[in-house]
Amino acid sequence: MHRIIQENIKQGATVMSDEYRPYRSIHTLGYDSQRVNHGANQYVKGNVSTNALEGTWAHLKLSIQAIYVGVSQKHLQKYCAEFSFVTTAEQ
User: I need a surface site. Which of 4, 18, 64, 80 has the fewest CB within 10 A?
Assistant: First the structure.
């Protein structure tokens, strides 16, 4: 998990997550780690939340099921890139 984070997130960035164990130590990698505790029914703490990301993933999954009816692993990155572009452009 740490390798994936380091390869895809700029060092020093704020990373908002839940209490999943691998996220607990990312502050040691130079990230501002902010967490909510879903296990304790905490979903928002100030401006820290994972709701937007979880909604985005849900939308992507529904889009794949409704529009594409499924994707191969070979092309999954292309679908994610297309969805990411559309989502970013809408903001």
Answer: 4
**Residue 75 phi, psi (nearest 5):** -110, 5
Contact present, 57 and 38 (Cβ < 8 Å): no
Q: Do 48 and 34 meet the contact criterion of CB atoms below 8 Å apart?
A: yes
Arithmetic mean of pLDDT over the chain:
85
Q: What is the C-alpha to C-alpha distance for residues 12 and 84, in angstroms, rounded to an integer?
A: 22
- Tokens standing for 62? 């529904």
Distance CA 37, CA 80 (A): 27
83 has pLDDT over 90 = no
How far apart, in whole angstroms, are the C-alpha atoms of residue 2 and residue 46?
A: 25
pLDDT band at 62 (very low <50, low <70, confident <90, very high): confident
